[in-house]
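To the wet lab folks,

You asked to see what we're planning to order before we commit. Fair enough. Below is the target structure as tokens, and below that is the sequence we designed to fit it. If anything looks off to you, flag it before the synthesis order goes out.
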């Protein structure tokens, strides 16, 4: 037990929790973070940026959050945007204003790391232009475009790694220095963007400095050293909830590279993205859909590009929260989920959108892959090219016809739905603690 836990006023409570997607995103993390916020004190985003779209439904109100942690609907909780996030200040300010206009308090309860990197307009232009160039050069052998959200995520993280051309949230408070840096950065970026075919006047560093310093002034009350803030919370025995954005199979190191995002979006991103050592995470809740979806390019072994996928898409309203793109849909890939559960050290599962599967005569679970050489494996392949060459092997289970969106406990689900969940637990080797049967807070079956 860590010192922080020993100091906790409630040692039996689940202390520090991570919520992470085990597939390719959009598993319902926002709903679960909102649900678990009540029993935590601080909710922290540690990775990604405005590529994320986390939906919370409360009664007839629907909130789509991109940068602000999904705990924001509880005014007495502290929400933190950690150093591992790339922040688009314009999007963030709009998100804050939209929430305030809807009566949600956003003040001292939102803290932003002074070391979080800034997504600049030229990052977004670069992201879109590079994707367009790659798509235009696509051939039968190679289409290198990723299908990004065009939110500037890759170029912003690339600048973080380049170091000299990066800007952090703390840099926005010094307009003179910001202008000096931007004069150099813009001279380089204008040439690079022109090389990518962008037809626009050269970037104006002075105008950008003025605009981003103004954003900095607006956000200044929220900007702080969040690493010390989080360690103070640990010492005081306050309980932290880490909210993953994107998902394990989109992790830059452990996902289906190169069709991934540009951060460590598995639980492994928590320490680097917050400054909190991994040993402090007591409980990792892996979020998975009862089937699989993916947005953008990249291999998807269980994809159903047919009437089955179409049915899932329409019943599950599978259209992107951020880009509104139709999501690709398919059967549940348990080889992939078992891999993600392993990478994330998952202690329990939340199985989401089970209601969407009502009405299928039979359901398929992918348990193994047949490799190119004919051999059979139960191991995931986190490499896009090799993964695209496998064939999914399924187990078939009987479906159920009843609608289940008002189920209140697992025992009240149809017998075949219960068997479906049990088989998932057996194959993944991790218990399902939460079953979600609708978007609302109340449409949740929790069994601890
Ligand atoms: P996130 O990115 O992981 O937070 O997930 P998204 O919000 O992008 O996508 C999940 C979608 O499913 C949202 O529209 C949710 O409101 C919705 N949702 C969450 N849980 C359930 C569920 O159990 N059943 C149904 N039908 N919809 C759900
Ligand atoms: P949430 O948090 C689904 C996907 C994009 C693209 C790839 C790279 O809502 O689950 P990027 O813009 O990050 O460079 O795009 O990653 N992607 C997501 N897909 N949900 C997300 O977030 C995603 N974040 C990134 O579609 O394929
Ligand atoms: Mg989403």
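Sequence we intend to order:
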């Amino acid at each position: 037990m860590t010192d922080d836990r020993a100091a906790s006023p409630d040692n039996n409570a689940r202390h520090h929790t991570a919520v992470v997607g085990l597939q390719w995103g959009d598993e319902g993390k926002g709903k679960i973070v909102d649900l678990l916020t009540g029993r935590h004190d601080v909710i922290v985003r540690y990775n990604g940026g405005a590529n994320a779209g986390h939906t919370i439904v409360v009664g007839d109100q629907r909130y789509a959050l991109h940068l602000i942690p999904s705990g924001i609907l509880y005014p007495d909780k502290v929400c933190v945007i950690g150093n591992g996030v790339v922040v688009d200040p314009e999007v963030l300010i709009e998100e804050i204003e939209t929430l305030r206009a809807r009566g949600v308090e956003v003040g001292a309860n939102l803290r932003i790391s002074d070391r979080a990197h800034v997504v600049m307009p030229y990052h977004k232009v670069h992201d879109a232009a590079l994707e367009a160039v790659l798509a235009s050069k696509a051939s039968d052998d190679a289409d290198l475009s990723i299908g990004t959200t065009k939110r500037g995520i890759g170029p912003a993280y690339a600048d973080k790694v380049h170091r000299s051309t990066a800007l952090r949230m703390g840099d926005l408070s010094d307009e003179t220095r910001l202008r000096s840096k931007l004069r150099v950065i813009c001279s380089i970026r204008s040439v690079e963007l022109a090389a990518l075919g962008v037809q626009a006047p050269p970037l104006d560093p002075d105008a950008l400095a003025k605009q981003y310093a103004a954003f900095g002034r607006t956000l200044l009350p929220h900007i702080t050293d969040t690493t010390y803030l989080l360690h103070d919370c640990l010492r005081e025995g306050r309980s932290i909830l880490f909210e993953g954005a994107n998902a394990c199979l989109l992790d830059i190191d452990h996902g289906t590279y190169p069709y991934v995002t540009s951060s460590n979006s598995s639980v492994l991103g928590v320490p680097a993205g917050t400054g909190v050592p991994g040993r402090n995470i007591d409980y990792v809740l892996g979020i998975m859909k009862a089937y699989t979806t993916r947005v953008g390019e990249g291999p998807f072994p269980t994809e159903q590009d047919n009437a089955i996928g179409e049915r899932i898409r329409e019943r599950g309203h599978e259209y992107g929260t951020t880009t509104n793109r139709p999501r690709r849909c398919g059967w549940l890939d348990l080889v992939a989920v078992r891999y993600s559960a392993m990478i994330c050290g998952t202690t329990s599962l939340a199985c989401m959108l089970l209601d969407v599967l009502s009405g299928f005569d039979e359901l398929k679970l992918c348990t193994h892959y047949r490799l190119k050489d004919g051999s059979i494996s139960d191991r995931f392949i986190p490499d896009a090219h090799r993964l695209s060459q496998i064939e999914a092997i399924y187990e078939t289970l009987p479906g159920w016809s009843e609608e289940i969106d008002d189920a209140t406990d697992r025992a009240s689900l149809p017998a075949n739905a219960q068997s479906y969940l049990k088989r998932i637990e057996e194959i993944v080797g991790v218990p399902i603690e939460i079953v979600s049967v609708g978007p609302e807070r109340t449409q949740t079956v929790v069994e601890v």
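Structural context that might help your review: Residues 87 and 118 are 5 Å apart (CA to CA). Residues 175-195 form the longest helix (21 residues).

Thanks,
Computational group
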